Amino acid sequence: MKFCYMESPIGPLLLAGDEDGLSVVGFPSGKMRRDPDPGWTEDRSAFEEVIRQLDEYFDGRRQSFELPLNPDGTAFQRQVLDALQAIPYGETVTYKDIAERIGSPKAVRAVGAANGRNPIPIIIPCHRVIGSSGKLTGFGGGLETKAALLRLEAEGSATLL
Q: Would you tell me which of 33, 63, 71, 131 could form a disulfide with 137, CB atoms 3.0–4.6 Å apart?
């Protein structure tokens, strides 16, 4: 596994992956904060396209990503991740909406858990999922970061935090 860090308006992001695709986007803080595993090799050149597309996203010039992704997870988690990728830029849905879209309308909590384990946030847009009350709920990079990403998509502003 190769990795590098990139600077972003929400802080340094850890990027990691291999020849099969990007596997990790780690936040600088929050429950999804990640450090490189001891066996990983630092190689920024392996992530030039990822960095370019993320920079375009943060500049308000990109609304979707065209990258090979290789997220780890169970079949159910991957089903949730696929549903997350179908949420349009600038829109939000609820956990219940996702549960219904994957054909498991009673699996709202399981959808929430799978959403919370998303190893490639931002690119797989778990920040677009909110509570049924319309309030922001848990996010691996912290609620302030989630709010900033939603503001970016609503306003096109690169001033996140």
A: 131
